[in-house]
Amino acid sequence: TLRPRNPGTMGQSSTTAGAVVWGSSEHGQLGIGSLPTEDRAVAPRLVEGLRSVPVRQVVAGGHYSASVSESGEVYTWGCGKDGQLGHGDTKDVHMPRAVRSLQSKVIRCISCAEHHVGAVSEAGILFTWGRGQNGRLGHGGTENE
């Protein structure tokens, strides 16, 4: 569950449309699909799932990644074990996938930590999700959300 709160292992670069990634894809964090173990060190390449998306920002977390489009849509991919992808489950995702619970919001920036994410909307509202350990999500508890 994404809840509002009011006011390492890879490289990435955004292009006019899409994003270029490189590095380790061990957990799908590059967003280029599942690769055989021997091919997990990746030279720079375009993320096909974002090819037609005008990307504002791309960020890397611990074994996962996120991006924000110019229109404010959030995409995540990679390791989802703590809910940090925001898809309502803990499954890994190997290609960029829109975060549906934010589709009615216009997100302007996003930040990824090791196991949790914060995103700020155009209205200045902070949304956080992922591992809730030590209250890091700011929701008043320690549950993963």
Mind explaining what this structure looks like?
By secondary structure, this protein is an all-beta fold. Helix content is 0%, strand content 41%. The protein contains no helices and eleven strands. It has strands spanning 3-5, 10-14, 19-24, 41-46, 55-60, 64-69, 74-78, 93-98, 107-112, 116-121, 126-130. The strands form three sheets. Strands 1-11-10-9 form a four-stranded antiparallel β-sheet, with no helix packed on it. Strands 5-6-7-8 form a four-stranded antiparallel β-sheet, with no helix packed on it. Strands 2-3-4 form a three-stranded antiparallel β-sheet, with no helix packed on it.
Keywords:
disordered N terminus; mainly beta; 41% strand; single chain; four-stranded antiparallel beta sheet; 0% helix
